[in-house]
Inverse folding.
């Protein structure tokens, strides 16, 4: 990203803070890119001829005589088929030793899709993880995060989902990814032999935090290219949005903005919405589906980050360690896919909605029974059976290591119903009972 | 015209040095290399106007020229707005080209070439004032009144009126003269500044009628009055949007205006897709024919989000002045408040609670007060009923937007996480929620007269059963099933009958999703008669199976066509279940 000929170079900084610097310059556009002593920066404020730049990699050792070169354009990404199978940093520069990309240059963080041009999301994404497919099926064009505590295997689950989902491209946006996790993704994709359909934009914990702010926009600009121009089904994985929000709060703090809840900037909702709302089903078959990770602390979803996220996304998937079976499960009570009604029983077998509702209800009865037992009360026969059901249900359906097809998961659940309950207790519509309740 | 030059830019806050007078809230256009970006003056300091731009300011440079328009942000009003999809600035989204929203593309909300069948309602020599009807044109199914523009506050005399016939909206359809003899041409189009309330009516009495929504938890328990205000706070996943969508489909209003303010685009797409297909059960017409959607989703510019609720309210006021009943739904007003917060923050104003601007409560109460039931100057009534959704952070109702709204909105429908978790939809909490209209004498009289003579008394009784049931259930949870008197189980299950039969409603069932008032009254009477009956039980274990059967039968009734054979059959089944344990 070196400067080209006839560029004006400024060499006198007026002010330097931990993340920003200002320079006296004219003819500069808002959100324009620049380099300061070779480091990439972006215009975040212009007052008269004082231009404030946010330096992505930090201002350490920047002198008041640093060279400032403006690019005359906002951040861009070169897009083309060659992106496939490549790994990039937050600026869109290759980090895999391969050649630079030649292609069309597009602005990142571009405009929104006109809502009247959108299509209704309607295509089922089978992940094989029955805890997702049975209770909260995902749909193309959806945006949904995993809410998980840092100790849970969310990166593994997300990689699994990515590999099993029938998508044309998988774009990984890694923000503050530990180097180990980055290598995990890389080797997982390589081992699965799908490296050709993967594109990664990665900011690891080794990189400066503010750089992260570019990652989602880079990943989504690439996604828009493939979804809109190639009509492909693109799955975008963003991990971890909590670290992205932390970077936002660093910048807003340096700019002397008044923080709102949990020290987050007042614009957090809009900032996150700009990312998530890029999920879309286009009329010509292309789609962008966003699966993200928001790490939470001790299951607290009232913190500003998960809370604002929940108001934007179409549901959330909760990972929880189930101590009864010693495995991590998709929590059926707290997870929700808002778009599930668009595919359940329509793109899947007709009994799907009723099986889902009934299993969730019976499982909830088991949880109530468990609380009752813990409080020292005796359990009824029904409650004891419900608890046994819940144990098997967690093991055979909810656990994240389950990998079965959409028909099989329904059959397994019917089997569990029959093993522990009477017809009356299950009470599913007669037409389905006739088909799936096997005579003993 | 005042002109200016851009001096500074921080996100969508732009400082403009001006060469002449500017007014607070005046609209200006910033010229970004040929693209005109609309902006609004929100503060003036010396010769610098602080403007909020309704678009992205990417690439804007100091020195860009600015033109001021001398008017505030305004809506263009006239026939042809029904069934339209507008953005927050009233641009017709369907007229925009391309897949993406292009910066600086503003489209005409009306169609200047279409012909409308005009019928005059006044004659030469008549005296008219602002908002008075001069004529009418058919728009879809309604008689769209052509009014003397709201901004013409004087008294005028009609000097010429067009004959019945076909005209474009820009054609002159009347000429009027004021007391000083100045003449003015009137077309079918008028403009109104969105941040001001329209006051073209004779008086605004207290609301006295109820407005049916088809939702039992609202109509039966906490009815909203026609011209009333209400709000639904709730954490995410509690079903705010589903509730609003259901109300928009079934409410007894002539016109529904939906302001999707800073919410998910896919939810609005659902309206775009469903409304042209769904039928309005009252008229048999498609829902889209009585709907206007103002759509400023969460990724659209923040300042336009703030404008969107005002745009929606102004359009509502325009149609109210035609003597119509309007229902205005806004989802969510928290996003609007957040847009205010973002601006206030950029202007470095001293923050109020949670960094919201200090005048937030005043802004909210001003907005809610624009709703209401009015008698127009010709004594025809019209109304705007307003229902706002609020998204409190973490579902905690002790936050500025909820608290400020609670002070002004008369109905409070609290959506509870607990109910949502146990799939008790709609998740409106029966204990916390209230309708102040139930205390209005005129509303009580109306309900008792139109539903049945002791309706209000029955509703209060129902609420009492719910409260007693809650108390009993709390005791059972603490002391255990056998640690409480048997009667507690009976009490808990009686309230459970009310909850499952009256309050819970299946939004996906074609019969249960909307209940007409007559049916609501019938069911409440039946449920109350169960509650009033004494039952005999040997032990607490008998209670649950008995009530479960009763609930199951009642539930089937909810799913069956009202007063049909099947319905009657379930009713007699219920009666025989009741007889089994009735204390003689």
């Amino acid at each position: 990203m070196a400067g080209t000929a006839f560029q004006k170079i400024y060499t006198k900084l007026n002010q330097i803070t931990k993340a920003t610097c200002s320079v006296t310059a004219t003819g500069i556009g808002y959100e324009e890119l620049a380099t300061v002593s070779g480091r990439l920066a972006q215009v975040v404020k212009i007052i008269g001829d004082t231009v404030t730049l946010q330096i992505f990699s930090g201002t350490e050792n920047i002198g008041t005589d640093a060279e400032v070169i403006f690019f005359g354009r906002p951040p861009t990404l070169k897009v083309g088929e060659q992106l496939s199978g490549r790994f990039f940093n937050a600026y869109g520069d290759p980090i895999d030793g391969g050649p630079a990309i030649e292609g069309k240059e597009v602005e990142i963080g571009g405009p929104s899709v006109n809502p009247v041009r959108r299509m209704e999301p309607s295509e089922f994404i089978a992940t094989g993880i029955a805890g997702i497919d049975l209770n909260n099926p995902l749909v193309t064009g959806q945006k949904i995060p995993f809410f998980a505590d840092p100790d849970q295997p969310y990166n593994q689950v997300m990689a699994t989902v990515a590999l099993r989902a029938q998508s044309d491209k998988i774009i990984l946006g890694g923000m503050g990814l530990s180097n180990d996790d980055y290598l995990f993704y890389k080797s997982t994709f390589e081992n699965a032999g799908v490296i050709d359909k993967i594109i990664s934009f990665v900011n690891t914990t080794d990189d400066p935090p503010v750089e992260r702010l570019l990652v989602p926009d880079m990943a989504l600009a690439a996604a828009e290219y493939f979804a809109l121009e190639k009509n492909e089904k693109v799955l975008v994985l963003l991990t971890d949005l909590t670290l992205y929000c932390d970077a936002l709060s660093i910048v807003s703090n340096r700019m002397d903005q008044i923080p709102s809840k949990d020290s987050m900037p007042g614009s957090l909702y809009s900032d996150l919405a700009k990312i998530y709302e890029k999920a879309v089903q286009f009329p010509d078959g292309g789609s962008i589906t966003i699966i993200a990770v928001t790490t939470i602390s001790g299951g607290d979803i009232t913190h500003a980050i998960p809370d604002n996220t929940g108001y934007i996304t179409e549901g959330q998937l909760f990972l929880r360690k189930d101590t009864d079976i010693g495995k991590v499960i998709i929590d059926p009570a707290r997870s929700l896919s808002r778009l599930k009604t668009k595919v359940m029983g329509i793109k899947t077998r007709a009994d799907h909605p009723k099986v889902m509702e009934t299993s969730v209800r019976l499982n909830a009865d088991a949880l109530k029974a468990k609380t009752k037992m813990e409080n020292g009360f005796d359990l009824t026969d029904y409650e004891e059976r419900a608890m046994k059901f819940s144990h098997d249900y967690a093991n055979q359906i909810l656990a994240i290591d389950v990998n079965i097809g959409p028909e099989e998961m329904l059959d397994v659940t019917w089997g569990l119903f029959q093993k522990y309950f009477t017809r009356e207790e299950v009470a599913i519509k007669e037409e389905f009972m006739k088909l799936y309740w096997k005579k003993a | 015209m005042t002109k200016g030059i851009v001096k500074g830019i921080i996100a969508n806050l732009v400082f403009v040095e001006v060469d002449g007078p500017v007014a607070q809230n005046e609209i200006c256009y910033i010229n970004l290399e040929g693209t005109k970006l609309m902006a609004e003056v929100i503060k003036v300091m010396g010769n610098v106007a602080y403007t909020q731009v309704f678009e992205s300011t990417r690439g804007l440079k100091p020195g860009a020229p600015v033109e001021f328009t001398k008017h505030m942000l305004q809506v263009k009003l006239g026939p042809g707005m029904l069934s339209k999809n507008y953005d927050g600035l009233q641009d017709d989204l369907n007229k925009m080209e391309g897949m993406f929203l292009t910066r600086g593309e503003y489209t005409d909300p009306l169609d200047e070439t279409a012909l409308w069948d005009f019928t005059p309602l006044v004659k030469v020599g008549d005296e008219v004032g602002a908002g008075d009807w001069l004529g009418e044109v058919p728009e879809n199914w309604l008689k769209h009144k052509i009014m003397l523009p709201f901004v013409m506050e004087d008294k005028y005399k009609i000097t010429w009126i067009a004959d019945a016939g076909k005209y474009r909206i820009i054609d002159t359809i009347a000429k009027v003269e004021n007391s000083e003899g100045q003449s003015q041409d009137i077309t079918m189009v008028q403009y109104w500044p969105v941040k001001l309330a329209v006051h073209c009516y004779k008086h605004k009495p207290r609301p006295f009628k109820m407005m049916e929504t088809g939702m039992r938890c609202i109509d039966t328990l906490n009815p909203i009055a026609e011209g009333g205000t209400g709000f639904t706070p709730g954490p995410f996943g509690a079903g705010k949007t589903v509730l609003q969508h259901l109300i928009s489909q079934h409410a007894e209003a002539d016109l529904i205006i939906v302001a999707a303010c800073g919410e998910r685009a896919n939810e609005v797409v659902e309206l775009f897709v469903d409304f042209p297909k769904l039928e309005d059960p009252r008229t048999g017409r498609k829902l889209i024919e009585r709907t206007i959607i103002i759509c400023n989703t969460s990724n659209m510019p923040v300042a336009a989000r703030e404008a969107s609720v005002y745009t929606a309210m102004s359009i509502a006021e325009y149609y109210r002045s035609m003597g119509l009943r309007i229902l205005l739904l806004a989802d969510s007003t928290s996003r609007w408040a957040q847009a205010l917060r973002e601006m206030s923050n950029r202007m470095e104003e001293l923050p109020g609670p949670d960094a919201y601007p200090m005048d937030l409560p005043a802004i909210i109460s001003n907005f809610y007060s624009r709703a209401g039931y009015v008698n127009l100057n010709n004594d025809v009534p019209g109304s705007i009923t307003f229902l706002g959704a609020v998204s409190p952070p973490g579902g905690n109702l002790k936050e500025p937007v909820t608290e400020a709204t609670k002070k002004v909105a008369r109905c409070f429908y609290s959506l509870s996480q607990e109910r949502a978790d146990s799939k008790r939809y709609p998740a409106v909490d029966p204990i916390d929620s209230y309708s102040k209209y139930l205390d209005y004498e005129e509303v009580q009289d109306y309900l008792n007269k139109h539903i049945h003579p002791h309706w209000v008394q029955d509703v209060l009784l129902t609420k009492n059963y719910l409260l007693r049931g809650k108390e009993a259930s709390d005791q059972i949870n603490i002391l255990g099933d056998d640690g409480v008197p048997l009667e507690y189980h009976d009490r808990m299950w009686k309230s459970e009958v009310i909850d499952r039969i009256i309050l819970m409603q299946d939004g996906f069932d074609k019969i249960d999703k909307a209940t007409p008032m007559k049916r609501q009254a019938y069911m409440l009477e039946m449920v109350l008669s169960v509650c009033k009956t004494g039952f005999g039980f040997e032990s607490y274990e008998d209670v649950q199976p008995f009530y479960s059967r009763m609930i199951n039968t009642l539930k089937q009734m909810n799913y069956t066509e009202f007063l049909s054979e099947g319905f009657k059959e379930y009713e007699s089944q219920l009666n025989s279940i009741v007889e089994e344990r009735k204390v003689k």
About this structure: Chain B is about 30% helix and 25% strand. Chain B touches chain A through 63 residues (CB under 8 Å). Chain B has a mean pLDDT of 93.
